[in-house]
Specification:
The chain is mainly beta. The chain has helices at 36-41, 119-122; strands at 12-14, 19-23, 45-48, 54-61, 72-81, 86-95, 102-104, 126-128, 138-147, 154-163, 169-173. A hairpin with a 5-residue loop joins strand 10 (154-163) and strand 11. The chain is rod-shaped, with a radius of gyration of 29 Å. The mean pLDDT is 93.
Amino acid sequence: YKFTAVSCCVLNITCPSSNGGLFQCRENLPNAATDTTGFKLLGGVIFNYCDSLKLSSTNSYNAGKGCIGDTLILTRTYKLKDSKDSIICPIIYKVVDNIAPVITCPVNLTINCDANSSSSATGVATATDNCDPAASLIISQRDSILDGSCANLKLIYRIWTARDSCINMSSCVQ
């Protein structure tokens, strides 16, 4: 009797979950896996393949800005290929910034009636944001002036508002 060994291999892979998760900022999206170890860390399972296995990925973004009502969607498609077959594994990541900037008002002051009460003299608010750089935030002010209990007494309530690129806003009062 003569037996001949027949190589019978089939590409057998389980893709990671297609739900890659929800992120606050585009910068928080994970980097693509560059090898099979990274693919396995995503939850993929490699059971069998022929010869060698190659992994590649492509990214496709929608036109969303990553704001409430305008979700940014990244579809990252992994392709695993051996000498005979290939398998495609898409993973969808979503970005929605719904966190307002953190604003800090200048300290409250008491000034003389004839003193300069502009914000250049009394201080300006500052803000930081989880996604946008501080320089890109829009900080505005609105004054509400009330007469005090004396003739020359006035109370100035300066309302500061910080807004990020997703129109998330926070305010403080000086």
